[in-house]
Design goal:
The complex is a heterodimer.
Chain A lengths: L2 E12 L2 E12 L3 E6 L5 H8 L7 E6 L2 E2 L5 H6 L2 E4 L11 H5 L13 H14 L16 H14 L4 E5 L7 H16 L3 E6 L2 H7 L2 E6 L2 E7 L5 H8 L3 H12 L1
Chain B lengths: L1 H14 L3 H4 L14 H7 L3 H17 L6 H26 L7 H18 L7 H26 L3 H24 L3 E2 L10 H9 L1 E2 L7 H24 L11 H20 L3 H26 L15 H20 L14 H31 L8 H26 L2 H30 L1 H25 L3 H27 L8 H27 L5 E2 L1 H18 L1 H11 L1 H6 L4 H27 L2 E2 L6 H11 L11 H20 L6 H26 L2
Antiparallel strand pairs in B: 1-4, 2-3
Helix pairs in contact in B: 3-26, 4-16, 4-25, 4-26, 5-20, 5-21, 5-23, 5-24, 5-25, 6-7, 6-8, 6-23, 7-8, 7-23, 9-23, 10-19, 11-12, 12-18, 13-16, 13-17, 14-15, 16-17, 17-18, 20-21, 21-23, 24-25, 24-26, 25-26
The chains are: A alpha/beta, B mainly alpha.
Chain lengths: ~250, ~700
């Protein structure tokens, strides 16, 4: 599996504050790399570097083996890195197909080719295994998981090679999360490299091929799926030794 | 997620959609994947305005002797055009999430600017060829200023444009007083102003054309073909197409179509009663056969099952028939042919009775609501000691309000007004109840649906005959009667088709596309037919009506079929999201503000060149009328949703009431009350209907 995107010893400093230190991981085409970490672990900083909002201070950021440094989110998008944020960029009262093509409407001379848009939106969502009952319904009436899936399908359609998902399951119930995880897998199966940010190891483990665990800006390890079990991942994620100390403390009382 | 969930909640809050129930999610199989044409119409933003337009038109048509003929239509269209043009612009801006309070005064300011420029520039004035473009440039600049200020300061556009409003209002006074010593710029005409004629032609010319021999045949052809296309469009969008058309029924369709054409043609040309009856029956029967035959030829049939008797449809059926009977009885008491006097109920006892009924109904309504609300709150376990006094107090207030309302209404209206209101109101409620009964029966079985359909058709026919028998007024004898017969036939045809044909459950891209196309073409043909019939009557139609149609068409096309339309919806619905995904949100807003100002300037030109004078106060206060028209048309105050066609219809409703109220010999001051009521009702209807239709998804 050749690495589509690779980070080697990546660090980010804001003045004296070290936000990220010596991060190394990779994502291959058709694979899912999960980035796990508690609040303040540096997940957001990592996303911002990958999507071109910030630039790395040290280390290498390789895309297709070439070192890159994005000046802006536009550059990252042009290079094929699409980010689906938690607060998805959608207008709730607009229909699914209008949202799907928002900002990149097909058609010449300002015309919006609506029949092409409807057809394509339906096909693209079907390819991801998403069955929206009515393309004309406002996005606001979709469930959270469905909205995430529309955003994912949209990013895939508009030529993303690397898809960054920022905690897509954090606000969802169990069933809805399962739906989204299915789409994460579907995106990878279509040949994309997916970077899946989450703080829930139970969501990460079933879909991930690689796991990068962050804690306070430092990497606790970058594992292939074969190298780590679900229990170890959970323990690592929960703070490992720290949690044991806390447990000990609580029990003593 | 949080922001979107929030926004989803807003959807539920503001439009009454089902954001919360839909989020339950679920599997593909338990969802409806297709909405029929009727349901799409009901969920469209302009439905309230559409219903309102029909109701208001029927109301004035049945009260005023002249309302509805070509001359009267020309005169209310004259009022509607400038209002409609502005309502469309403001509607577009509101969909983009902003307001413009300076839009009204803009129509005056640009007029004053052109007048002063043409008369006083450098001593003796400039030609309009310079003055008019300068006014448009200035309007564009003011719009740009509004938009840029809103973007930069992030202040609500309400505040920013309020400031612009006052500045323009002041400028109007200052400049007109200083240059012509009056608050009125007069005599903008061909004697004082160079280059006047071409601009008057473009913006304010009057057109009248006498009738010509082929007018009525053209009208009839367009309307019949148009209606046929609309019917086909509905069938195409709601039924399943056969793999191979059933050629056995082709002769039936042919016979029906020929009979329909021959019948309607004869009906139009004949005057004798027996001939009318004969051709009417032949025409309507032919229509029925043609529609049912066409459906059998092209669409899949199935064997009907189930009981002929409906259970769930009984109550609405009874309500509907009851409403029609009461409407008829009221109509009998108050004949249109009596003089147009203020309503005076002769018997003294009846006055008291009406008062008592009003009191009881008011108290009852309030008490019912109160009891239900308290039950929901308290849950029946704990009772506040103040419960009974509270209920009594609210009931008393409700009763008094109702009494005052009813008595005031009875003071103001004429007998004819009362009669028309009862008819349109009760008739409308009755019709809705009957349709609800049919809907309930349809869910039970296709047979029950047919039996209700037949009852509805029979009721409509009976009502038509009763009205015709009862009233001496020509309008009731011919127009309303014809409409009733036509509706009855359509209802029967609809029931027959639903009885025999399979209803489509899923989307069919080709059929839906064809259906939509047919619908648009059909409606355009009907509109064109009526347009031709109205125009070639020698009445004075203003060119501003053409501007109105043009602006509405451009705006509707832009909104539905261009990327700018998509961007307008997006910046109104979620500006930050739109920006994040690459929509130039600031430019879109500035563009919208400039568009409103430019359109305001267009209306300024239309008014100035028409009246040849402008007052400094021109347009002040009208900005709210534009907003009302847009809101009646289904544009959301919070942005991101709406329709410009609805806004146009909203303007039509307002213009019809401005002209129709005096035509019905009501006190013309009533129009403000009327407008308030219309605004209220249209918004409620919009919300209710959309809520119902969304639930049915």
């Amino acid at each position: 599996m050749s690495a589509l995107l690779e980070l080697v010893g990546l660090s980010k400093f804001f003045g004296n504050v070290t936000a990220l230190e010596n991060i190394t991981t990779s994502v291959g085409a058709g694979a899912v790399t999960c980035v796990l970490g508690d609040n303040g672990a540096g997940k957001s900083t990592l996303i911002k570097i990958l999507s071109g909002v910030h630039q790395q201070s040290e280390g290498e950021f390789l895309l297709d083996g070439n070192e890159v440094r994005f000046a802006s989110p536009r550059d990252a998008r042009a290079a094929g890195i699409a980010t689906v944020y938690q607060d998805l960029a959608m207008a709730p009262l607009m229909s699914v197909w209008r949202n799907f093509f928002l900002g990149s409407e097909p058609g010449r001379l300002g015309r919006f080719d609506t029949s092409f848009a409807k057809k394509t939106a339906r096909e693209e969502m079907a390819k991801m295994g998403i069955d929206v009952r009515d393309l004309d319904q406002p996005v606001g009436t979709l469930s959270g998981g469905e909205r995430q899936s529309v955003a994912i399908a949209r990013a895939v359609y508009f030529g993303a090679r690397v898809l960054i998902l920022d905690e897509p399951t954090s606000a969802l119930g169990v069933k809805q999360s399962g739906v989204v995880l299915k789409y994460v897998r579907a995106a990878a199966e279509r040949g994309l490299g997916v970077i899946f940010i989450t703080h829930n190891p139970h969501h990460a483990y079933p879909v991930g091929n690689r796991f990068l665990v962050l804690n306070r800006g430092k990497s606790l390890g970058d594992f292939a799926k074969a190298e780590i079990s679900r229990e170890e991942l959970t323990r690592l994620m929960a703070g490992g030794a720290e949690l044991e100390a806390l447990q000990h403390e609580l029990e003593v009382r | 997620m949080g922001a979107v969930l929030q926004a989803g909640g807003d959807v539920a809050g503001t439009t009454g959609s089902t954001g919360t129930t839909a989020s339950a999610g679920g599997h593909g199989d338990e969802r409806i994947s297709f909405r029929g044409p009727m349901q799409r119409l009901l969920t469209s933003p302009e439905i309230g305005a559409l219903v309102g337009t029909v109701m208001v038109w029927s109301l004035f048509w049945s009260t005023g002797q002249k309302f509805g003929n070509a001359g009267s239509t020309a005169s209310w269209l004259d009022v509607a055009a400038p209002l409609g043009i502005m309502a469309v612009a403001i509607g577009l801006l509101m969909i983009g999430g902003e307001f413009d309070l300076s839009a009204g005064v803009m129509t005056g300011s640009t007029g004053i600017m052109v007048g002063l420029f043409a008369q006083k520039f450098m001593g003796d004035g400039a030609t309009l060829w310079i003055a008019v473009p300068v006014a448009f440039l200035a309007a564009g600049a003011i719009g740009w200023f509004n938009g840029t200020l809103v973007n930069r300061t992030k202040l609500p556009s309400f505040i920013v444009t309020l400031a612009t409003f006052f500045i323009l209002r002041g400028a109007n006074l200052v400049f007109s007083k200083r240059l012509v010593d009056k608050v009125l710029v007069e005599n903008v005409n061909s004697e004082t102003v160079t280059g006047f004629e071409p601009f008057r032609k473009a913006f304010a010319s009057i057109h009248n054309k006498e009738t010509f021999a082929l007018r009525d045949p053209i009208f009839l052809t367009l309307v019949i073909v148009g209606i046929a296309a609309v019917i086909w469009s509905f069938l195409e969008q709601s039924l399943v197409r056969r793999e191979r058309p059933n050629s056995a029924v082709v002769p039936v369709v042919g016979v029906g179509a020929v009979a329909a054409l021959a019948g309607f043609g004869l009906l139009h040309n004949s005057d004798g009663t027996s001939m009318n009856v004969l051709s009417g029956v032949v025409g309507l029967g032919g229509m029925l056969v043609a529609i049912a035959g066409f459906a059998a030829w092209r669409y899949e049939t199935h064997v009907p099952t189930g009981s002929w008797v409906t259970h769930r449809g009984r109550t609405p059926l009874a309500v509907g028939l009851g409403c029609l009977i009461v409407a008829y009885l009221v109509t009998r008491k108050l004949d249109l042919n009596q003089q147009r006097v203020l309503l005076s109920v002769p018997a003294h006892g009846l006055k008291v009775a009406i008062g008592v009924v009003a009191l009881v109904v008011g108290a009852g309504l309030v008490t019912m609501r109160g009891v239900r609300a308290m039950r929901a709150q308290v849950g029946g376990t704990k009772r506040s000691p103040l419960l009974i006094p509270k209920l009594v107090a609210t009931a008393a207030i409700g009763a008094l309000l109702m009494l005052v309302g009813v008595l005031t209404f009875l003071q103001l209206t004429t007998e004819q007004g009362f009669r028309a209101l009862v008819q349109v109101g009760l008739g409308g409620v009755g019709l809705v109840a009957l349709l609800a009964a049919k809907g309930a029966a349809r869910r039970e079985s296709s047979r029950a649906q047919l039996s209700i359909g037949v009852i509805i058709a029979a009721a409509l026919v009976a009502y038509g005959f009763l009205l015709r028998h009862d009233s001496g007024a020509v309008r009731f004898r011919s127009g309303l009667f014809t409409a009733m017969m036509l509706f009855a036939t359509l209802a029967l045809a609809n029931a027959l088709v639903e009885y025999r044909q399979v209803k489509r459950q899923r989307a069919d891209h080709d059929a839906d596309h064809l259906g939509r196309l047919l619908g648009v073409i059909g409606m355009a043909m009907v509109a064109l037919g009526f347009g031709i019939r109205l125009f070639f009557t020698g009445s004075n139609f203003r060119v501003s009506v053409l501007w109105w149609i043009l602006i509405t068409a451009i705006a509707a096309y832009t909104l539905a079929r261009t990327r700018y339309g998509n961007w307008i919806f997006a910046v109104g619905g979620n500006k930050e999201a739109a920006r994040a995904i690459g929509v130039p949100a600031d430019q879109v807003k500035v563009g919208l503000f400039m568009m409103v100002s430019l359109v305001g300037c267009l209306v300024g030109m239309i008014n100035t060149l028409r009246f040849t004078s402008v007052a400094a106060s021109q347009g002040i206060g009208e900005e709210f009328e534009y907003i009302i028209a847009a809101v009646v048309g289904g544009c959301l105050l919070t942005g991101g949703y709406g329709s410009v066609i609805g806004a146009s219809l909203g303007a039509m409703i307002m213009a019809m009431s401005i002209n129709g109220i005096p035509a019905a010999r009501w006190n013309s001051d009533n129009r403000f009350i009327f407008l308030g009521a219309v605004l209220f009702i249209a918004v409620l209807v919009n919300q209710k209907i959309r809520q119902k239709a969304q639930e049915a998804r």
